[in-house]
Amino acid sequence: VRVGNLMAFLQYASMILIALIMLAMTFVMIPRAQASADRINEVLLTLPSITDPKEPQKDSGLRGYVEFQNVTFRYAGAEKPVLEDITFKAKPGETTAIIGSTGAGKTTILQLIPRFFDIEKGTVLVNGTDVRKMAQKELRAKIGYVPQKASIFSGTIKDNIRFGKEDATDEEILEALETAQAAEFVEGKENGIESDIEQAGANLSGGQKQRLSIARALVRKPEIYLFDDSFSALDYKTDQKLRKALKKTTDDAAVIIVAQRVSTITDADQIIVLNEGKIAGIGTHQQLLAENGIYQEIVASQQAEEESA
Ligand code: DCP
Ligand code: MG
Prior knowledge:
Elements: H1 3-45, E1 66-73, E2 83-90, E3 95-99, H2 106-112, E4 121-126, E5 129-130, H3 136-141, E6 143-146, E7 155-156, H4 157-162, H5 170-179, H6 183-187, E8 196-197, H7 206-218, E9 224-228, H8 236-249, E10 254-258, E11 270-275, E12 278-283, H9 285-291, H10 293-308
Parallel strand pairs: 3-10, 3-11, 6-9, 9-10
Antiparallel strand pairs: 1-2, 1-4, 4-5, 7-8, 11-12
The site of 2'-deoxycytidine-5'-triphosphate has 12 residues, from helix 2.
């Protein structure tokens, strides 16, 4: 046998071997692909549980009114309702604050306003109309929602703000950044609003992300603002400046703020104290401080924290 023949034989043999291994792998992949395809189909065929009414009700002409009437809600499959018998009203030009411990249901209340979920009992009204009787698109166009966790996408700062309003002009964007107290750090960047942001805002601080996500809501100029713990990563001074600037732009809008810090909400028109899914009291800071045990506890615990800090 010549060496050349032997080499050729080995080469061909290994090619056949590799082909056989590939074949075996294909047989492993086929059932996996089948299962994935089934799952994708299932997701695509799922009908959304929130649907538009056949004949959406016409605009009532009111602006900036939110009302909960004896609302009870539970997440799908949950044993206990997370919200029970919630009743309150938010009016244009007023700030409504929600305070309460983690898991009390604060975020859930906010998410019921744009109808992310349907409730079990009671009614959620926006401008006097049941949210289930409105077209979702129209309902959500009225609302500027700043979620608890700021979602920042890769792209420029401008792109990120334009998620709030697709056709926002540079002036509108700058104005929103100004109010959100973000203008300073944005202008400090080399390319201003054209500066790039990394995926998930990796090159921004927590407070910077929060302020961009606030600006995104502001640029929409909605009639209902929902801030979910949106000021928690800001220092006390920035928090104050932001709220002062907000006051001007949200003149005729309803503002609902979820807050951890009492100092963020002392000047709210009404404060809702939420405790384990139920309202433990509604009033101004002074009223609650005088008569609401749970509110007193919250205030006392924060004072103790400040002193120990
Ligand atoms: N919950 C749930 N399923 C979800 C979201 C929440 O079962 N998709 C439960 C967890 C809590 C309760 O609902 O027990 C209330 O959750 P919230 O997020 O509304 O609570 P808060 O916003 O008040 O809490 P935090 O201050 O931590 O944001
Ligand atoms: Mg929350």
